[in-house]
Amino acid sequence: SACRLCIMRKLPSVLARTLTSGTSASPGLLDMSEVRSKLRDIVGASTNWRDHVQAMQERKALHTLLAKRQEDLPPRRMKDSYLEVILPLGSQPAIREKYLNVHNSVRFGRILEDLDSLGVLICYTHTKQEMQQRSPLSIVTALVDKINLCQKIIHPDCDVKFTGNVSWVGKTSMEVKMHMLQLHDGDYSPVLDATFVMVARDPENKRPAFVNPLIPESPEEEEVFKQGEVNKLKRIEFSTASLLKMAPTAEERNIVHDIFLNTLDTRQEGEGTVSFRSRKLPPNSMWMEDAKLKGLEICHPEERNIFNRIFGGFLMRKAYELGWATACSYGGSRPFIVSVDDIMFQKPVEVGSLLLLSGQVCYTEKNYIQIRVHSEVYNAITREQHTTNVFHFTFISENEVPQVVPKTYG
């Protein structure tokens, strides 16, 4: 977790710079409610929960529209999937309440929901077939690779603009870069950059499906595309370097050993009698096992996505809110989100599940707090439990925070 703080950096999209230079939102831009209704139209999802089984049955017929090979699909350009969406917090105060927190700024959990919906729509725009209103693809969020914030506070009474486009494409997956800007004195200034990875599956969301290839058109776009390839290789490398598969590196071993020596209780008689089990907490520190918070959500139909599973944005919002509460209670002052990374969606969450969330402070440095939120679903009837996501949030606290100290090897 320490290395996460070192690698936080911004990768502003070339397209965003060239395409968002306008000073104010142009009329006719989509807003967030239109994004969601457009997604329902593309998939043919029902707005009535009781009709969802029928709606999903009808999707089966779309199997015939799937490409047999990627080469059969027309290539697309980055600008083909480029979208701008407005969140009119300033010009339409009626929607402000939903986005407002107690500190009179915007709830970041709501922004995560909006980014998730926008990312899916951008991918549907990239894969759109001219003659078909309904898409045979089920596009779902696989991973939030990175979200970096350059503003501490998002104002609740100024319009927000989201922009984004597909930045890299594999055979069945797409990387999407999105940006959020906020209107101040007639100009849009950057708030955050986000990188999501989406995967395309067949109409029943059972098997991978091919997506249109992406053709970069300029040296800048070549760079953006290459970076997408690098990101993919990093993810593969990271997944193979798990502690469950590989031993810690020499540097990691030294860090762990130093922490261990620092917590040994040496006040006992003579050096030879120091026990491995006898541990003490260094000053201004807290044991990691004491820096936890837990939460439970019942997954109601209201929170379903267009495929009648629980909406990924809802899971992110709930995990973020628990992460924020964990950081707040640990640091004793208001935390601000700095970065979000490595949110891997391992399993879909069914409507009716019990969602168990565990927030854990896992690293601290001066005012920074790293929070890991583990999310699992529990089926109360079968009593089965499995992990759906692991989230990583970096916060900066108003005051310096105690150092978090692990007690066990795990």
Automatic annotation (TrEMBL):
| Gene3D superfamilies the record matches | Hotdog Thioesterase
Span of domain HotDog ACOT-type: 81-204, 289-401
Q: Name one GO biological process term.
A: acyl-CoA metabolic process
GO cellular component, alphabetical, reads: mitochondrion
- Pfam families (alphabetical): 4HBT
Assigned keywords, A-Z: Hydrolase, Mitochondrion, Repeat, Serine esterase, Transit peptide
Task: Report if keyword Transferase is assigned.
Answer: no
Cellular location(s): Mitochondrion
Q: Which InterPro entries match?
A: HOTDOG_ACOT, HotDog_dom_sf, Thioestr_dom
Q: Where are the transmembrane segments?
A: none
Spell out the molecular function terms from Gene Ontology.
carboxylic ester hydrolase activity; fatty acyl-CoA hydrolase activity
Q: Work out whether the entry's keyword set contains Transit peptide.
A: yes
**What family name appears in the similarity comment?**
Belongs to the acyl coenzyme A hydrolase family.
Record-given protein name: ACOT9 thioesterase
Origin species, per record, is Chloropsis hardwickii
Instruction: Give the source lineage, highest ranks first.
Output: Eukaryota, Metazoa, Chordata, Craniata, Vertebrata
Gene that this polypeptide is encoded by: Acot9
